[in-house]
Amino acid sequence: MMTLSRSRGRAHGAAIPKRVHLVGAGGVHLSAIGQILLARGHVVTGSDLAVSDYTRRLQQLGATVYEGHAASNIGRAELVVATVAAADDNPELVEARERGIEVIVRAEMVQRLLQDRRVLAIAGSHGKTTTTAMAALLAERGGLDPLVLIGGDAPDLGGNARDGAGDLAVVEADEYAEAFLEYEPQWALVTNIEPDHLDYYGTPERLRAAFAAFASRVRDDGTLFVCADSEWAAELGAQQRAAGGRVERYGLAADTEWRATQVRPGALGGLAATVILEGAELGQIELRTPGRHNVMNALGALAVAMRAGVDFHRAAAALAEFTGTRRRFEVFGEAAGVTLVDDYAHHPTEVRATLSAARQRYPGRRIVACFQPHTYSRSQYLLDGFRTCFEGLDVLFVAPTYPARETPDQGIGGAALAAEITNPHARYVESFEDAADAAARELVPGDVFLTIGAGPVDEVLPLLRERLAGDAPAEGDAP
After folding, report:
1. Distance (Å) of CA 252 to CA 136, 148, 228, 261, 302
2. Of 108, 172, 175, 178, which is the active-site residue?
3. Beta-sheet strand order (sheet of 159-163)
């Protein structure tokens, strides 16, 4: 992992040279940076270990992206931007240093792109991608023409990046490796805080300290928004308020400034709610995206967008149009009477929210899932949560762990995790092919099948669709 130091504020006012090289260009965040640079007329090159949709998108927009890392890839670059996952001995970073080319990490580059903008930064352990996409859509439909950088694809916005001409920037503020400490937002929102990324932080206390540092970077004339339904986020808000900061809370509780009440099934597939601001009713919101967690995401997005200047009625109309972000309860299709859905959830809290959303969207139907754990360490330090978060599922398969940056000795693998889950009894599968085979034998028309995880577990879906299409039961066979 990179050990590049970051000097706070060094990026402020720094010019961006013409030629920029991206190490890890296929990552969701670096690809968004590349798209913004290309839109501004920069010459962009990059590299990544494998070709992906994001590298292809950059190439279609005019970038040169290499598969694999080599010193020659940086060419005539005048600035190198690297993912924090890049090792110090990466040949492109070594070459850049030997040639005296400036090397910065991704978050520093984002800060340079945000110069002279009012920044709306959205952070949190869960929900930040969806909330950022919602807030960006509200700002766009509200006429603010924002710059947007999201850690996931939002079809309503055309992807994960947008270089608007307005003075507002809406950015997803990632807590991993303290990346969000590069920003100085006018408005900052914290959706929730829970133990995660302890491979980096070590302890929950260090994680909470990082969020406190992020909150302290809100401008003196700015506002921190926190979800009062998250214990640690609410405590953060109380601390900032006690220190003299401007804080607004949102949630279901009656004592919050922004409140969602009368949460109920809506006509669009998600939930509807009445929005109360400081005791006065603003009006109704209705969502296409299912789950109570998305009501909270929408309420937070509404709060920050309105404070940035968006009219409530325009915001409510935009929320009703919001179709979600890629891999967040994304419907893949239907096969042999089975509904196929993919979700990025990889933390017990997220899994519970996803399964609750599935029950709300598909009441009375049997729910079958394949979960791919994300990193060995997360499975270990969140084991108690993983033991219980799948309760209510009818059938659960567990795939091999997606290791990301880790080795097996850093925690527990998929087979060991499956053995710990007893409600429902989890079945370990050795591969995605095996998962598709096992699921095809289990599923019947009317079922819902979910792939769950931040790794490439969604690859099970096309495999399963092929098997279901080839073995589709005849009409009348369904129980």
Report:
1. 23, 28, 8, 6, 14
2. 172
3. 159-163, 147-154, 168-172, 118-123, 187-190, 223-227, 247-251, 258-265, 271-277, 280-286
Find where tokens 């603010």 sit.
144
Residues 6+ apart with CB under 8 A from 277: 257, 258, 259
Q: Tokens in use for 268?
A: 């669009």
Alpha-carbon distance values, 349 to 195, 228, 425 (Å): 10, 16, 19
The two structure tokens encoding residue 164: 């608007």
Is 98 among the residues known to form the active site?
no
Quick check: is 401 catalytic?
no
**Which candidate in 108, 128, 325, 339 is catalytic?**
128
From 229, 222, 223, 219, select the one nearest 193 (Cα to Cα).
Answer: 229
Kindly name the residue from 45, 55, 129, 325 that is annotated as catalytic.
Answer: 129
Query: Does 128 participate in catalysis according to the annotation?
Result: yes
What is the pLDDT tens value at each position of the chain, 479 positions in all? 333 333 333 344 478 999 999 999 998 899 999 999 999 999 999 999 888 889 999 999 999 999 999 999 999 999 999 988 888 899 999 999 999 999 999 889 998 999 889 999 999 999 999 999 999 999 999 999 999 999 889 999 999 999 999 999 999 998 988 889 989 999 999 999 998 888 889 999 999 999 999 999 999 999 999 999 999 999 999 999 999 999 999 999 889 999 999 999 999 999 999 999 999 999 999 999 999 999 999 999 999 999 999 999 999 999 999 999 888 899 999 999 999 999 999 999 999 999 999 999 999 999 999 999 999 999 999 999 999 999 989 999 999 999 988 899 999 999 999 999 999 999 999 999 999 999 999 999 999 999 999 999 999 999 999 999 985 443 333 33
